[in-house]
Known about the structure:
Strand order of the largest sheet: 1-5-4-2-3
CATH class: Alpha Beta
CATH architecture: 3-Layer(aba) Sandwich
Largest sheet: 5 strands, parallel
Oligomer: single chain
Strand content: 15-25%
CATH superfamily: Rhodanese-like domain
Helix content: 25-40%
Number of helices: 4
Order of helices and strands: EHEHEEHEH
Radius of gyration: 13 Å
Amino acid sequence: xxxxxxxxxxxxxxxxxxxxxxxxxxxxxxxxxxxxxxxxxxxxxxxxxxxxxxxxxxxxxxxxxxxxxxxxxxxxxxxxxxxxxxxxxxxxxxxxxxxxxxxxxxxx
Length: 108
């Protein structure tokens, strides 16, 4: 079963200074609309070829637009032996609805 976190809890943890390894798995076109601060960018189709870049010893929180793709990506990573992956329930849509910060990056 995939573990999940909601936007309010994630934002609280980030504000408290918790070390959060956050990964945005959306497409470059989606990312152009903004990302959650400090998120690493790894589009979902690239996860299998770049899986070695993901830490196995830390909690990894994945998010997408609505939480559906990141849920499936978490399930895939669990099949690959990752036991500390977490899905952001509701994705960046829920994050934005909560009024939390979204940043725009140059060069995306």
